[in-house]
Amino acid sequence: PGDQEAGELGLAAVPGRQAAFRQALEAAVHYARAVGCPRIHVMAGRVPLGTDRAAVAGEMETTFIENLRYAADLLAQEDMIGLLEPINSRITDPRYYLNTPQQAAAILEKVGRPNLKLQLDLFHCQIMDGNLSSNLEKYFPLIGHIQIAQVPGRHEPDSPGELNFPYIFELLESLGYAGYVGCEYAPKGDTLEGLGWLRSYWESRGLQHGGTSKEAK
């Protein structure tokens, strides 16, 4: 994430921070290797304070592409995947550079490396673009990780909000998604109590707690 006390939230697209980005990436690879995690979120970073987004967009994209190619080469040596996550600029972070799946897909195409993927957080995607079913289908070949949270409160999937998660989960299954779904939400209360939505979902699908079929038991 860079120097968070100085207001940074990632370095990959920030001009002039290339050396710090490479140093941070090497540290991230070290940690990921130690814990056996094959995916690293390569954070783009924020539009510098006092600058207009449109005025620096070209320079930031050039920096981002250069750093991503470097990252892809380094991660390939470790058999790891780099992930790009668009973060909404309407609620969460107005200055974050990478803010839509369309922008991320365009950059991934320009970088052209198979070990870089899209980390699609449905909370951010819904706020910036909506159209989740179509976006999941369109960008599915690029997706390397999915994250969820209800909109707009960013709480559990069964909390009041805009998204129908049972439908979304079935859509992901029908598309053949076999990866993890990260619970990127803030529990309204206790963490374990907040996982009640998952137990209810398993039961609605005829599954035991843990996701195994009752018939198999």
From TrEMBL:
Pfam families: AP_endonuc_2 (PF01261)
Active-site residues (renumbered): E85, E184
Keywords (A to Z) from UniProt: Isomerase
Xylose isomerase-like TIM barrel domain sequence ranges: 10-200
Gene3D superfamilies: Divalent-metal-dependent TIM barrel enzymes (3.20.20.150)
Catalytic activity: 3-hydroxypyruvate = 2-hydroxy-3-oxopropanoate
GO molecular function: hydroxypyruvate isomerase activity
An individual GO BP term: glyoxylate metabolic process
Family note: Belongs to the hyi family.
Role according to the record: Catalyzes the reversible isomerization between hydroxypyruvate and 2-hydroxy-3-oxopropanoate (also termed tartronate semialdehyde).
The protein's name: Putative hydroxypyruvate isomerase
Source species of the chain: Malurus elegans
Protein's gene: Hyi
